[in-house]
Protein 1
Amino acid sequence: MRITASKGLLLRIAFGGIATVVAVFLLYLAGSVGLYDLDYPLSLLPPRGRALTTGLLATLGFMTVVMPLGFGLGFFFGWARTSKVWLGRAVATTYVELFRGMPPIVLIAFAVLITIVVFRGNDRIDLFAFASLAGVVALAAHSGAYQAEIIRAGILSVPTGQTEAAEAIGMSKATILRHVTLPQMFRVSLPALGNEFASLIKDTSLLSTIGGLELTFQGKNLSAVLAVGGGNLDLVIIIWVEIALLYFLITFVVSRTLQAVERRFRVPGLEAAQL
Amino acid sequence: MISVRNVHKWFGELHVLKGVSLDVKKGEALVIIGPSGSGKSTLLRCMNLLVSPDEGDILIDGVRVNDPKIRPEWVRQQVGMVFQSFNLFTHLTALQNVVIGLTKVKRLSSTEAERIARFELERVGLADKADAYPAQLSGGQQQRVAIGRALALNPKAVLFDEPTSALDPEYIREVLDVMTKLANEGMTMVVVTHEMGFAQNVGDRVLFMADGIVVEEGTPEEIFERPQQDRTKTFVGTILG
């Protein structure tokens, strides 16, 4: 494992910056040829700014819960699916099939409804907060099912000779997992995990259906307000372009971060082409 | 030092070991030969409990080790193993491959572990490759690192499972040289191999296995020049041409 050289890091940041500038330029080019009106009323700027800021913060907030929780569930159940113990495999397989087999939006709805039914009439808790939390957990569980398979693929990619050699020098099961299997499986799993994270970031938009005040919710809300106020379609387009850009930026930062992690797990002599 | 007593092993319906008994004396190099599928590898794996015998006993210095009260991890520290496909940890350098057993199994400090590991790499002639990763080493070099990894734990005996079978011909010599040196230093070794030159020159005793049983055993001269059993005669005839 090597720490990334700072020169390479600067290059990658520069590349990201250039990509963003190009994207923004293209959008304004589209505006200048009349795809939408650039001269939107400036009076609408502050409320829109506020709405998008709260939306962005909520989306980031959901991410910070859903991503680690989804990864934790994925890691645990992915590992359990490779277990030698029958019960471990059975429970993990049931989890994966169940949560992978339903649309996340249905899972979120179920989680919220069940929470409401169970805690209805209990004055000591904030029912709305509880229901929202259940929705967030349901989304994490959905992603966890996908991540479990990614982790399982990684574990299966480590040749049995590696664990056998570790056993032969007297390593315990826990030591083998920590020092032999994990470092080798992550090398294989990280690209697919990056894919899943990118998808999950955008899936947080599904939490708008249960009143999560995140980016997509704010977009829908602003659009509705503008449509009522005389139907300023140009401004609606701009809002959605801005929301798209924000999602793009978040996803870009996360996937670049994961690629930096991937570089840390690179093994000389076994590396793929430069990222 | 290592005694195998009437060991049986089944893999499902397949009866791989059908009552094998043998003794490995301290300081001797015991060579096991035999056609593939005769149970040689399984027998080796029983001796360090990578495979647990279904029947019979494994004794190390008179202590029965295939006993639920004895941790197999402990047994494996006493008996090192070298594999046909090297099985070096691909994510670690040559040095780290030798260090990891010392720090994570024997719980030595990293300075002490590194000192021992560098000594072991020196012993197998690879001091200059300490920082190379397995994928950057030739097969022969990888196998020598693997021998160093086994020796670092200071085992009572080392088991070799066809250590040169996966090697290109030009790398076989360097591995056999290291093994010969070890045998001359008095290391207790059990070697499954098809290298008849090694068996004749280095082996103190040769044991011929077929179909899960020990067919014949004796000195290299007895087995290779005056085999008694028909199956031994056929096998020896085939491999010596």
Note: The first helix of chain A runs from residue 6 to 32.
Protein 2
Amino acid sequence: MAVFHRRQVLQAAGLAGLAVLLPPELLAACTTSPAPAGGGETGRSLLAFDPHEAKVVEEATARLIPGPNDDPSEAGHPGAREADVTRYIDTMLGALEPRPPRIFAGGPFSNRAGWPVDDMAKFLGLTPAQLSGWTRRLASFRARYREGVKTLDKMAGGDFTAVSTEMMDAILAQDPGGFMTLLFTHAIEGMYSAPEYGGNADLVGWQEIAWPGDRQPRGYSDSQVTLSDGPDLYTPKGIGAQLLGLLATSP
Amino acid sequence: MVLARAGWDVTIFEKGPNYFTDLGSERPGTVFSNDELKMSRSFSLPDPTSEPRVFRSSPQAQPIIGAVQSLPQTVGGGTVHWDAKTPRLWDIDFKKLSMLGPVPGADIADWPFDYAEISPFYEQIEELIGVAGDIALFPKEPTLAHAPRTKPLPMPAGPPEYSSLVVSEGCRRVGLHPFIAPMAINSREYQGRPRCDNCGFCSGYGCPILARVGALAPLREALRAGAELRAGAMVVKVETSGHRATALSWLDEDNELHRESGDLIVLAANAIETTRLALLSGLADPYDQAGRRVMFHWFSEGSGIFLSERLHNYRGRDHTHDIDDFADPDFPGARRAAKAAGLPYFRAGKVELGGTQLPLDEASSYQEVLRLLVPEKPFGAAFKQLMRASLLRDRLCGIELIGEDLPYATNRVDLDPTVRDWRGIPVARVTYGPGPSELAAQAFYMPWLVKLLKAAGADVAIAIPELPSPRFPIAQDQVPATEHVMGGMTMGTDARTSVTNRDGRHHHLDNLFVADGAVFPTSGGHNPTLTIMATALRQANTWAST
């Protein structure tokens, strides 16, 4: 379901009036954000980071998953900054302070696929076993972020956010203490998880990869399951060609 | 269900939480949802930090602590997140020693009952949980020859998945016999539960609309018949006196100890946790048998990448088609390859045709791949290009081979001497490695996975084992990625080589029974859950009449 692309095509063709042919819930998914207002530096209230840490994390994750302003080749393609990955990570690190904790979103449905209310916005309580695990896990993550930001700053000669993007990339590529790997893992989560967790703002993460996200209670029709969507040729190039080459030579 | 209906006063203890409301009612609710992050955060699994297990590939190997063969720890158990494929085991699985013969080094055994004896219980379970499929389309050889059927399944098959159709066509081109797999997913409204709406968050996810239930079906019947369910209650000890189990000690969520006496005690916490409880309780075990012969199925994954189209594998059931050819010990060439490996025979098992990963898993794959391809900058625009091309999600068709594990006395579950869970209770330690039979079968069948994917039109096809071995060091994980756990409290007639009898009764405790995969004497080459349920139903009928 290429939600994003269909809408773009409509707009590009100047036929936005035809959008009325799309199911209303699909249009809603295209145009509204179920996530609380966020993004940018203004009005952000941080749960776990101090403002400088948040800034370092924002700049670093924008190198890992760059958006249009971070890498010229990504024009038209939102990245970690646009998805507000920093808010996702801050929400996760501070997840145990709100009650209920922001660990497990509720269910069974969000309001993105034909249901009037967002059950997923109602987070669930934790069992003592889950609380024990998450308490230890998040304490470890927080210590690693505190340490990791300090290390990035040190490697940048004082302030990671003040150096060139080339320098940022060179520092991150060294993966000091495994911090880049941790950041990348969490940036991926913030980019492509449900917006209730604080990232994927305006669903840009899902739209960017033509991913429909949660589908209940609408689901898919039988023909959408059984039939081909039609040809969609991928011509191997760049990193995609490299990946195919790697796989083709696997033992 | 059987006991509650027979008038017993039944209490069910579940260590994990209850994610359902009003289970006894017509329309239960649930908080399971289409949420990849939630499931990756161990929503329904034991938290690997607070409730870890330990894995060793041999007694000498470095122990790994964390998630080990994790199954849901929640009301509904493994069938909360199962793919709901419900094949039956074959006649040769129940009478493996008699029909196929011994394998040096392995404890090949017969089950205490045969296919004909369990067949009526298969039928009852298929009716109870609602299996969809068309037996007229099952291959006569080998499937129906080894697992004959007399009755149609209660529901017609659901819609076939496009990628499963594509790979099935490839299978036919190389002489294999694909068919729509039987599965306990509603193809129409069934017993008040809705038809599956193809949402796609299936294998590994709790069903948000209860179109797929499994063990919840008999649980709901038990509750309606008066059984009491206690979630968040961990049984830590079976108390015994002479040849009787007298009571259970259990901890509530605040770690307060309680005691519940009973006339009949049934353990069904899955093969690993049931064995752990038996060992924690110090149940009589004069021949050191508890925990031995644990079996997991060696899985191997094939991946086909299609450049001409997106396969939308993320819609519908995980996959809809299977082949059984590789479960046949007489598959062309298999006997000869076994002989060359010094074995009397070997088998693999069924192959599931179709399936893919969702975006978080896909992104993690690229995170790994970029380290290999661009170590100088393993992130950035290259990562996003991969996500948009979606070679490892939307253009991927996965297939999975379920390989039969033989029972080895050295593959076992015991208590770890040092690692404890958050409550301070020793955790289960798994010591497991493949034998010559598993490795030879893997070497023989892995190339077939590539062959059938190529025949289906995959531009690139690879096969990767999920069983680490010296022969395949590129296995994905150090811990075998399998969720089929069997053995450890095996059924048998001889107390020197088994733990329970044909009714699941403990050899040394007259009123203690085991009713999960722990009792399996052999693993078969198919998903075990239907057989776990049919075996439990068969046994429960004997208990109810005691």
Note: Confidence is low (pLDDT under 50) at residues 471-476 of chain B.
